[in-house]
Design goal:
By secondary structure, the chain is of the alpha/beta class. 35% of the residues lie in helices and 26% in strands. The strands form eight sheets. Strands 6-4-3-1-8 form a five-stranded mixed beta sheet, covered by helices on one side. Strands 16-14-13-9-18 form a five-stranded mixed beta sheet. Strand 20 and strand 21 form a beta hairpin. Helix 2 packs parallel to helix 4 and helix 6 crosses helix 7. The termini are far apart.
């Protein structure tokens, strides 16, 4: 006779404890997806017109809500969003989600068979004679509005979650270093299709992070979304007009179909890491990379360790990076390349991107998310792997995932040592020496660790 009152008391105690843990109400989550495949004829990286759709490009992400604050993580199958275009998409997603702009992180997965759009560079090119092919404002707006619509619809169906899982596993035969110092001390660059050259394929894998990290948000036993983080350029081919999400998109969608759980993929600090050793540009190589990545994702899922959802915390900090001042890469030299009609459209566009960054007035932003036992650092540009290692080293023993490829206006985020050594990454960086110190200082501030 006393069983029902006792159960009611236990249920009440449980709810009280949950309310204490979550701050009166549990956190909530919603997922969203939108097709961001550009129309044929519009440019992919850099100015190559799209000629066929091999696979669609997606914008996928989650809205997180707790204690009246919302945050958005959005990963798009594009090579990059920069400057005013990044700001435009961020404003639209903020308005659609109800989150402040400082709590919106838009990540480009960075496939090289997808658009790379910098609206500020476009404005510079529009004023030059015979500008190269550029994505129209109408298409940029329409695709951004499509994502914003999906986000707005997701915000209406937020649902509570009570558990966050963290898992990590090794990925074999995918990542390889792009910068290799030979026994003689010279620097060799192995690009994403380096496997075509037997000599480059035979070089050591080099300094890579083989660990894929996965965060799962769940309610009870039901997984609601998985977020995967892995540091390698997601590129097996480039610049031939084919639109494709490449092997990372294929792996992500394969696992989503297999599990029936929403999957999002973020590229880590992969500025100097590619699949070059394992990619000869063939379909067979791409399928093998896909299979290996799926295997790593599944292993991370199977090794998931569960904990309470706790609170959702988000911190963001501005960072101003130094522009290039060396003669070859300074804004004046870039402006001359941009205006030279004898240069290719790609050269002129890349020069305009450098000028746009040099003239940028608004600081970039680095953000940090704490979600249960998971910590996530969001970086702009194409950070070298050193920045990921640095962040993870500040919180030893903790689960720290890193996503690069936010606002891509600075290009590569290079270490001071890389500038001294030379090579490809410094040649494609709009931010100059001193970047390493400023980025690491901001990372320390956000991770709450003031040690040098």
């Amino acid at each position: 006779m006393r069983l029902i009152p006792t159960l009611k008391i236990l249920a009440y105690v449980f709810l009280c404890l949950c309310g204490t843990a979550y701050g009166s109400e549990p956190p909530r989550v919603a997922t969203f997806r939108a097709d961001v495949t550009p129309p044929l004829g519009q440019p992919l990286i850099w100015v190559t017109p799209a000629s066929e759709v091999e696979s669609p490009l997606w914008a996928k992400g989650v809205i997180l809500e707790h204690r009246g604050e919302r945050s958005v993580l959005c990963a798009i199958d594009w090579c990059g969003l920069s400057n005013s275009t990044y700001a435009l998409w961020r404003r639209k997603l903020a308005a659609a989600s109800g989150a402040s702009e400082s709590r919106i992180f838009i990540h480009s997965v960075h496939q090289h068979s997808a658009p790379y759009i910098d609206g500020s560079a476009y404005r510079l090119l529009h004023s030059s004679p015979e500008p190269p092919l550029m994505m129209t404002e109408e298409v940029i707006e329409a695709l951004a509005d499509r994502v914003a619509k999906a986000v707005k619809e997701a915000a209406r169906r937020l649902e509570p979650f009570d558990r966050v899982g963290t898992g990590e596993a090794q990925v074999e035969g995918v990542a390889s270093a792009r910068r290799i110092i030979t026994g003689g001390g010279s620097l060799v660059t192995r690009f994403s299709s380096g496997g075509k050259d037997p000599a480059l394929a035979a070089l050591p894998e080099g300094d890579v992070d083989t660990i894929l990290k996965t965060i799962t948000v769940a309610r009870g036993e039901k997984a609601l979304a998985r977020l995967h983080y892995y540091a390698s350029h997601p590129q097996t081919f480039c610049c031939d007009g084919r639109i494709s999400g490449d092997f990372v998109s294929a792996a992500r969608e394969t696992l989503e179909q297999k599990e029936g759980v929403f999957q999002v993929y973020f590229t880590g600090a992969a500025g100097d890491v590619t699949a070059g050793k394992y990619n000869d540009g063939s379909q067979q190589a791409r399928e093998l990379l896909t299979a290996r990545l799926v295997e790593g994702m599944e292993a991370a899922v199977n090794k998931t360790r569960w904990g309470p959802a706790g609170s959702v915390q988000w911190r963001a900090a501005p960072v101003r990076l130094p522009a290039r001042t060396d003669a070859k890469y300074a804004a004046s030299a870039a402006r001359a390349r941009m205006a030279n009609e004898a240069n290719s459209g790609q050269e002129r566009y890349r020069a305009a991107i450098a000028v746009a960054f040099a003239e940028r007035q608004v600081p970039l932003e680095i953000s940090f998310l704490q979600l249960g036992a998971a910590r996530v650092l969001n970086l702009p540009g194409e950070p070298m792997l050193e920045f990921q290692r640095y962040a993870q080293g500040l919180l030893p023993g903790e689960f720290v995932a890193v996503a690069g490829y936010g606002d891509l206006s600075p290009g590569y985020l290079c270490t001071d040592r890389a500038f001294e050594e030379g090579g490809y990454e410094p040649s494609a960086s709009n931010a100059g020496p001193g970047t390493e110190l400023r980025v690491k200082q901001t990372i320390r501030e956000l991770l709450g660790n003031q040690t040098p």
